[in-house]
Amino acid sequence: MRVNIKHLFLAAFIALTLLAHSAFAQDTSFRSVQLAYGISLDVPSHWTVLSLENRKNLGAAGQAMTDNAGIEGSSGRKESLLAMNATPNPTGAMIRVSVTSPPDYTQSDLAAATPADLQEVGTEMLKMFRQLEASGGPKIIEMQPVRIERLNNYRVLVMPYIRAGVNGPSPWQVTQYKIPVSNRLIEITLSHRQSDAIVWRPILERVKRSIKF
């Protein structure tokens, strides 16, 4: 019995040590980022933050694709606030945050949206993606059902889809969160490579749960 008790104490000590290490790692693995317009979120500390120049290049590429496809963009002014890529390269996950002013729709519009309205939004999005694909945009494998969620007591238009990978064969899961707030639209895009979703999905869920505005 004495030997068994000794083993139990040893096992408990090892468990506590591992838990302490896990808690310490959890405290240092994420950092809070404060953005413009009162937006904040927790992001992985070791991920790469893209420079302003890189964000401008991404914006220019997106604008060029919509122009080349003959798609009329939003009438508002879009401002990129944050772009992050997971490490190491080639990246397996991304975070994008932007704001468009003024918004194309309001909280009241989302409150009044019916299932048929959301289905129509998904159909129009897929149609637009097909046009973009013909102009050099990403290949969309599946447009998933558009839905409305709540975040910080605000209604959020959630637009998920699966696209082909760029640097490998694995498809990517992409989820856009669009939140009309006052005179602007907050747009947050979280995406990850599906082949190692077991790593990226909990990280991006942690990021999503931390979002404040």
Question: How would you describe what is shown here?
Answer:
Residues 1-25 form the signal peptide. Keywords: Signal. This is Putative secreted protein. With 213 residues, this protein is an alpha+beta fold. It has a single domain, classed as Protein Transport Mog1p, Chain A. The chain has 5 helices and 10 strands, in the order αβββαββααβββββα. It has helices at 2-29, 52-68, 107-112, 115-134, 197-210, and strands at residues 30-34, 40-44, 48-49, 77-85, 93-101, 140-143, 147-151, 154-163, 172-181, 184-193. Strands 3, 4, 5, 6, 7, 8, 9 and 10 form an 8-stranded antiparallel sheet that branches. Strands 1-2 form a two-stranded antiparallel sheet. Strand 8 (154-163) and strand 9 form a beta hairpin. It is globular, with a radius of gyration of 21 Å. Mean pLDDT is 88; it is low at 1-26.
Classified in CATH, the superfamily is Mog1/PsbP, alpha/beta/alpha sandwich
> How many domains, as an integer?
1
Gyration radius (Cα, Å) is 21 Å
Strand tally:
10
Q: Distance between termini?
A: 57 Å
The helix-strand sequence is HEEEHEEHHEEEEEH
The shape is globular
* CATH architecture name: 3-Layer(aba) Sandwich
Tally of helical runs: 5
Taking pLDDT < 50 over at least 5 consecutive residues as the criterion, the unreliable ranges are 1-26
Q: Percentage of helical residues?
A: 25-40%
CATH topology: Protein Transport Mog1p, Chain A
By CATH reckoning, the class would read Alpha Beta
Organism: Ectopseudomonas oleovorans (strain CECT 5344) (Pseudomonas pseudoalcaligenes)
Protein name: Putative secreted protein
Keywords: Signal
Signal peptide: 1-25
